[in-house]
TrEMBL record, chains A, B:
Domain HTH cro/C1-type: from-to ranges: 3-46
Range of residues in the leader sequence: none
Top-level taxonomic group: Bacteria
Entry GO MF terms: DNA-binding transcription factor activity; transcription cis-regulatory region binding
Keywords for this protein: DNA-binding, Transcription, Transcription regulation
Record SUPFAM superfamilies: lambda repressor-like DNA-binding domains, Periplasmic binding protein-like I
Protein name, entry field: Catabolite control protein A
Length: 340, 340
DNA sequence: TTGTATGCGTTATCAC
DNA sequence: GTGATAACGCATACAA
């Protein structure tokens, strides 16, 4: 591994001159430039980013904290981050924290020691401990997730209440009135459950406690379990809003076992619109979240903050409904010509 | 951000002493140790990894190159890598190269400038250009993939011929004889197609060109397209070996459209055993690859190479067949009591 | 246009 | 035990 000194020697100039040329500043003749460039090429010289970082106080590296990143959801976010980050000349170090966040503090320390230029934290909530730490790190931090989990830091999120509202409204527009929901069991109030409720209210449908069920996770298994529970609890529903694609697929499996046909007997609309949504039978109608773009946006924010030194605004990303085959019209008049 | 100097000043010692204590070497009294530790805590001092790396010539960081890492397959590998790497005190920088590997050289340069301690390359093949570069980088490199794509570098792989053999053998054991396959279209000879052929041969089943079809990808869409093609080309098959879970799910969708029931009309065995395998209807019987463990193993290898300085052996990981619902017995005698 | 010298935050080699 | 001080590889203020 050659250093700037080797180049200087080979080109018969000082290291200062080499440095100038490498960082293409001004202050040298074309002649020397050629000499130096030739030496660089010949020696295969690559500047040492460590030494550079030591001086410039910038490592062109950011850290990403994501909890149990095994799932496809986080993957999409990560992909967006990585893509944008590299476009801006930033490398990304991934830190996959376990479900309990036990490793998080350790990761934060590592990132701090490595003097990353910024941090993106993916996750449902920001522990006070983490917040304190990143604050002391004094580097740009942006939060990335589906919940507005903190307002002290800039974030990229979606409006879950609006999403739930859209989803349920979509079902209502399709003629459904007895609508169930698999929500996520949270400590505080659930924005999604709120949106669900509001959509019913606005359309003069009475809310029925029995039609909402709270899951402890977002996985396939949760879907089969809680859809079953939902159907037992509220057998008369004709549609359901399920807050993750995997769960929705699980619901279809559960329905299958229960002898319920989707969408003929009950329509299903899901949340996220990951690849699986397109792979199930029937294909899932879903609320689509721009996960990739959210990742990109988060990366863009940290980059901007790094450049300007001032905090960025939070962004709320738009969602849309992608219609596929898991939801059908209910109105009898329509049903005749357009069976589902 | 405080430096070792600040700590030294606050503790009334020299930076040398602080350094000794931080790296817990010997050569100081308990008394000074306490003082220094107190100062460190109070100032919240974190050693600068850049400065350290500059001297020690180790960054405790490795780079991972993975092509279009969007898919669940790469995710599993990555997860294994990350897990093990952090256990060994290594951070991992991800570099997601596009399908054409156009960005690869750029990434390699970045990793080189950052002086990573090692590199893991995920992918189907190693371009000569990349090989030359990593060789010049003079850091441990391990290849991670499903193909033994190069033998100049240590790798972690599986035995694709054996896998295909196992899969087809499984179908044969279940009474199938007219077995189709969706293989991957490669330039060279396909190990999987070889294994398929060998399994037939060993069981006195004649190979029929029509029953094998070559896909250009591994995705869901490829599955629906090529399964359709396969069924048109060889309508008499009773089973098929499909080389990715996503494709297998696609095949089920295609079958559905064709009015073919899986596994009643045709059994399907897939490859990889990702989460989707468990989510389709019917659930997929699949050859399971220990992707997570493969990732861990790759990380372990680079770590070892970093420590010892000598190259590591290549590893071939074991596979196993996970029986679920997409394959059924064919023998008529059996069929009577065990319909599928 | 070019070179010298200093410092970035460490570790390590000497002295004391 | 402890403390100067020289590297590590580079950028830059200052001289020339």
């Amino acid at each position: 591994m050659h250093t700037i000194k080797d180049v200087a020697k080979k080109a018969n100039v000082s290291i200062a001159t080499v440095s100038r040329i490498v960082n293409n500043q001004s202050g040298y003749s074309e002649e020397t430039k050629r000499k130096v460039l030739a030496a660089i090429k010949e020696l295969n010289y690559q500047p040492n980013a460590l030494a550079r970082g030591l001086i410039n106080k910038r490592t062109h590296t950011i850290g990403v904290l994501l909890p149990h990143f095994i799932n496809a959801f986080g993957m999409e976010l990560l992909h967006g981050i990585e893509e944008k980050a590299h476009e801006e000349g930033l490398s990304v170090i991934i830190c996959s924290t376990d479900s309990f966040g036990a490793k998080t503090m350790k990761y934060l320390q590592v990132l701090n020691e490595k003097r990353v230029d910024g941090v993106i934290i993916i996750g449902p909530k920001l522990e006070e401990e983490y917040y304190d730490y990143v604050k002391r790190m004094a580097v740009p931090v942006v939060l990335l997730g589906t919940e507005k989990f903190d307002n002290r830091l800039p974030s990229v999120q979606v409006d879950n209440r609006a999403i739930a509202y859209s989803a349920v409204k979509h079902l209502i527009d399709k003629g459904h009135e007895r609508i169930g929901m698999i929500a996520f069991h949270e400590n505080g109030p659930s924005l999604r459950a709120d949106g669900y409720r509001k959509a019913l209210e606005d359309n003069d449908i009475i809310f029925n406690q029995e039609r909402i069920v709270f899951s402890s996770g977002f996985a396939f298994e949760d879907g089969v379990h809680f859809f079953r529970k939902l159907m037992l609890q509220a057998p008369d529903i004709t549609a359901a809003y399920i807050i993750s694609d995997e769960m929705a697929v699980g619901a279809i499996t559960a329905a299958d076992r229960l002898g319920i046909k989707v969408p003929h007997d009950v329509s299903i609309i899901s949340h996220d619109n990951l690849r699986v949504a397109d792979m199930s039978i029937p294909k899932l109608t879903a609320v689509s979240l721009p996960l990739r773009r959210m990742g990109r946006t988060a990366a863009e924010k940290v980059f901007q903050m790094i450049q300007t030194g001032r905090p960025s605004e939070s962004s709320i990303m738009q969602h849309e409904i992608v219609e596929r085959d898991s939801v059908c019209m209910l109105a009898k008049a329509v049903r005749a010509k357009q069976p589902c």
